[in-house]
Inverse folding.
């Protein structure tokens, strides 16, 4: 029987392949994400800068930035929660850890809504990330302070029937794809 680590590695490989196909087909759109965020104007929001074949939330982030604070994650180190630096459409960006773009300067913001990138999701709010646990630690920390909305943003093709999850994996509250919105 495969270990949980091996099961996660297999699930990630399968999901990366599905995500690549959706990305190459040009299926990504942030229209449904924008519709959700319109109901939360002014609430501090964390987006992310898409890498490789991730679905791109930038259009929704730009729209949200016209109405309130938007920030993006900054990796502070292995085993640590993320911090979030203020972002605007014209922010000067530099490469951070793992090649993710981050604002060169800006205030630190504590978001109440996070747009969460992922490798795979299930319809129960399970999320498989890259394996570093950054979002899990961050969501656990933020949720201990106040209600925090975690919106998984992905291609519909990244859905899995089930995922190998563990107790430390933080659930998503909602999943938004190019095909629609799944409230959990």
């Amino acid at each position: 029987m495969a270990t949980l680590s091996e099961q996660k590695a297999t699930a990630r490989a399968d999901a990366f392949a599905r995500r690549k196909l959706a990305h190459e087909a040009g299926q990504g759109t942030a229209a449904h994400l924008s519709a959700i965020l319109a109901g939360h104007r002014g609430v501090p929001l964390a987006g992310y800068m898409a890498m490789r074949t991730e679905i791109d939330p930038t259009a929704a982030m730009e729209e949200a930035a016209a109405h309130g604070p938007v920030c993006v994650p900054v990796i502070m180190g292995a085993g640590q929660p993320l911090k979030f630096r203020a972002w605007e459409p014209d922010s000067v960006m530099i490469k951070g850890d793992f090649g993710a773009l981050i604002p060169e300067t800006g205030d630190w913001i504590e978001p109440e809504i996070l747009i969460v990138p992922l490798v795979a999701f299930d319809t129960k709010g399970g999320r498989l990330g890259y394996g570093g646990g950054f979002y899990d630690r961050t969501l656990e920390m933020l949720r201990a302070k106040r209600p925090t909305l975690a919106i998984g943003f992905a291609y519909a093709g990244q859905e899995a029937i089930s995922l190998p999850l563990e107790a430390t994996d933080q659930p998503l509250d909602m999943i938004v794809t190019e095909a629609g919105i799944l409230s959990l």
User: Anything to note?
Assistant: The longest strand covers residues 70-74. Residues 4-183 form a domain with the Rossmann fold fold (CATH 3.40.50.10420). The CA atoms of residues 19 and 158 lie 6 Å apart. The two ends are 31 Å apart (CA to CA).
